[in-house]
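Q: Structure tokens for this one, please.
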Amino acid sequence: MINQQRLIKLTQELIRIDSQNPPGNEKKICGFVKKYLHNLGLQSRVYAFKKGRPNILAGLKGANNKHTLLITPHLDTVPSGKNWNFDPFGALIRDGKIYGLGATDCKCNLAVSLEVINSLVEEKQILDYNLLLAATSDEESGSDLGLIPLLKKGILRPDAALVLDADDFVVVVAQKGLLHVKVKIAGKKAHGAYPWRGVNAIAIAVEVLKDLKARKFKYQKNRYLRPPTMNIGTIRGGDKVNVVSDWCEFELDFRFLPGMKAAELLNELKRVTAKHAKKFKIEVEGIQNHYQIDPGHPLVKGFVKALKDFKIKPQISGSEGATTITFFQEQDIPAIASGFGSEGCAHAIDEYVKIENLYKGALVLERFLKNYNPARS
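A: Here is the predicted structure, written as tokens:
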């Protein structure tokens, strides 16, 4: 049975552990989780791909060893920053909210996961499948030391996954792809009083960006996602005001829909840049694929039913930003994302989680796990 006071206390204890990334050190919070699981009589395994950056795995054996469901929150938070009105590590309760760094992103989800496992152990519940918990490091910096190597090395091999890293019970079934590029344009230096003697790389970059901004994406509409976007993230160039700039570089952030390809965006970028620049270089800084799962998939339907059981209106939606669900797609593992944080609080000053969300989240997750039928997946 879910114990609300125990869950509140657990959430506070997790918030009080500093796991900011950067600098990145999840050793203390991993040790806390390990001890918590040990006290439940569960064995856990720790995998670290860099010193001080552990990931912890633990599970409950089910009646049927043929299927495994993974639930995965993360251990790290973003840096606290300044200007908080509450102690970021104080876990103060006020007006039905627990305030603190990571309260929403993502220590509430970690606390709910642990409380639900605690409840299942107390009830001696035997699920119809193996349940696996993976609390991972480095999510806030790309998961290169967490979920990515755990999947690529075959350490995690679930049949399906529920990523617990979202707010207000949304059910994420689609996600935009991501393409980050840096464009470097070369010109010719000259005295600023004689600009015709040089080739101004900044002026060329302006024309390239104007052309890119004017172009329309070719795409199919997606009911869960907004149209594709391009954001100019940074731009740098030139050495001095009275010198014709012989260099300029800018970074672009593309978010693209299912059905679109990063390679096609790159080809268009090269074509437009070549139209204006004789010498340039394009560096790919990051690619993450888009993702979509059928809303009729049993993973989605099972979670939606659990929400309805507690009179929570399901919000099936898409993610405009990058989450870890795409990493499962690369391994042909169906996945959805949900969570119990408070909307607008992630990465914000005076971050909080509503206690009501915590308790309802634990009830929903427990009901989902008890009723989940892997044979239908």
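A few notes: The chain has nine helices and 18 strands. The CA atoms of residues 208 and 214 lie 10 Å apart.
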